[in-house]
Structures are given as C-alpha cells and as structure tokens.
Design a protein that fits this description.
It is found in: Membrane. With 250 residues, this protein is an alpha+beta fold. The protein is built from 3 helices and 13 strands; from the N terminus they run H-H-E-E-E-E-E-E-E-H-E-E-E-E-E-E.
Length: 250
C-alpha cells in the first residue's frame, strides 16, 4: 500500500483561478483609476477645513477669554469705586420776552439755574463742549442754548446758570390761548431737555465721551423774571456712544 502523497505547503487554487499579489501599501494608498480625481479633490479639501476649524476655535476661545477678563475687571472696578448716578435738578427759572397781548413772533429768554450733584467719592465728571439745552411748551421749542464747559470733582455739587434764547417763535392760536390760560391759573408747564457730552474720570484715567441726557418737567406760576417753580421732576439717561453731526452731539 502506497503512503498518501504529502500535502503542499500552500493550497493550490482550483484550475481556472488566478491569484494576483498586490503590495499592501498600494491597496490602501492608490485608488482605482476611475476614482483618482475624486480622491485627489477630497484629499486637498481636508487640510483646509481642518485649518479653518482650528483657527475658528482659537478665535472663539480668545473672545471668550476677553469677555471673562472684562467681566472680572468691571466687577473689581465696581467693588472698588462703587459708582453712583449723578443727580440733576432745576433751582430757578427767570423768564423774559413773552408779550401775549400781541400776535407778533416771540423772542423768549430763559435763565435756568441747574444743580448737578456728583455723589461719587472717587469719580469725577468732565463736561465737554457740544452740549445742547432746549425748552419746550406743548412740543413747541421756545429757546435753546448750551452748558458751560467745566470739570466736576468727586463728591461735589455744582450750581451753574445757563441762558437760553429764541427768536421769531410763532405760536398757533391754540398754544397762544393755552399760555394765557396757564398764566391766569398760575400753572405753566415747560419741558427742559439737556444733552451733555461728558468723560468720566477715575484717578488719572478718562473714559471715552458719553452723552448724559436730562429731561425736566417744570411748572412755573408766571412768565416773568421772578417766576416761581410750582413743581419739577427730572429724569436722566446715558448714551454710551456719541456721534457728532455738524459739531453737535446726537
């Protein structure tokens, strides 16, 4: 009996089958010819997307860091300086130029005494040029002027006089009659609107220019130089940014 034939070390493929050996690095790195262009296009895009994504993440991280640092700085400044809002009021009004017995255009004049109170212990207020003060009656602007330029130190009350003038003011019959009736009753309501560009000073550092807006509703008893204030109410707001148009703050 013949011993069985030894088995070959490698299996022999059946007839009609061919085995082609391709290096492993070519299988993974060389695409088929029909996909070569697409592979090249995609391989070029990946690095650019990755770089853009990395730059965006870096930029976003920088912005978040700056916001956090700004918030911390603002909190520290608030705790150190304890800023308080300034207060404004009108002490007196002197009125001239109202001749209600005539229908001719008016040239009203108001001398307004304004009190500005800065209650802050470590913050000064620098009042700049470009301010505006207007007085209205029933939405009719009667006169205008501006504030003096001055620096108000910390923990200080400053009282200043500003002169407002108007000319060629023509009143409607309804407004003219309302002024006469108000003077007879001893109640003449006016509205004063003030806009002042200021810089806040902390130590030796000044901020950018911001705008203080003050609106006072004032009622007087008559249209004379010795008019008395019957009632008054002032409110104010702040614009953190200021723009200039023809030299005037807006």
């Amino acid at each position: 009996m013949k011993p069985p034939a030894p088995l070959p070390e490698k299996p022999i493929p059946p007839p009609g089958t061919y085995v082609i050996k391709i290096p492993k690095d070519q299988v993974y790195r060389v695409p088929p010819p029909e996909n070569a262009k697409r592979y090249e296009k995609l391989s070029r895009k990946k690095p650019s997307r990755s770089a853009c994504r990395c730059c965006f993440c870096w930029f976003l991280g920088l912005i978040l860091t700056l916001i956090i640092l700004a918030g911390i700085a603002a909190g520290v400044l608030y705790l150190v300086f304890r800023p308080k809002a300034p207060k404004y009021s009108i002490d007196s009004l002197s009125i001239k130029g109202f001749n209600l017995s005539s229908s001719a255009p008016l040239a009203p004049e108001f001398d307004v005494t304004v009190r500005a109170d800065n209650p802050n212990k470590k913050i000064g207020i620098d009042y700049r040029s470009g301010s505006s003060v207007n007085i209205y009656y029933n939405d009719v602007r009667l006169c205008n002027g501006k504030l003096p330029v001055f620096y108000q130190p910390s923990n200080n009350v400053t009282v200043f006089l500003t002169s407002l003038k108007g000319s060629g003011i023509e009143l409607t019959s309804a407004v003219h009659k309302a002024l006469i009736d108000g003077e007879n009753k001893g109640t003449l309501p006016f509205s004063l609107k003030l806009r002042a560009p200021v810089k806040i000073k902390v130590g030796s550092v000044k901020t950018w220019t911001i705008t203080v807006k003050v609106k006072c509703d004032v009622t007087v008893d008559k249209l004379t130089a010795n008019a008395k204030i019957v009632s008054k109410d002032c409110d104010y707001g702040v614009d953190l940014w200021i723009t200039y148009v023809n030299g005037l703050c807006k």
